[in-house]
Amino acid sequence: MSSSLTNEQWEWLEGKYGRLLHHISYRIGGDSITNDHLDSYQELSIAVLDTVAMFDKTQTTSFDEYKDTVGFDKYLKTVLWNRKNNLGSKIVKRAPLRKQVSIDEQILKDKVHEPIESFKPFGNETLDSDLQELVNEVVLDARIIKPSGDFNISRLCRRLDKSKSQIKFMVKRLQQTLEPYNENE
Q: Please, what's the largest Cα pairwise distance for the chain?
């Protein structure tokens, strides 16, 4: 029922579960820089405090009354082992690309002293309308380029509403147009 533990209650928890905390801390893998034993022990100690706070919310009795129950014992041990398994997973998980921070354009304009050059694929090469349309599709959808470096012809056919032979011809013309560009690099 209380939201914080007293020193005596923490000492009781550490006395009863201290060896388990050390045992789990030693079992947390990784290198010694990112997963030092003392750091792992502190993480697990915080997990104990969080567990007591969460368990406290669901109970109508005080900590001193439920601390010796089998339910609390199992709950605390489960939380500790789960914390061990998930320790460091926040660093590894990647956020989806679509969830980016938006930048206020006015703030960006205030911070930039020199104008940003606009990006033009393939430099200043002049392309006819069909080839420019092909290049624009590649810029808009990176999946048009396969991992092998080839164009995804079927995707281009759907996006440009053209036949395979027309797309292949356009790709060949683009390659021929850009040969001098590639030679200059």
A: 82
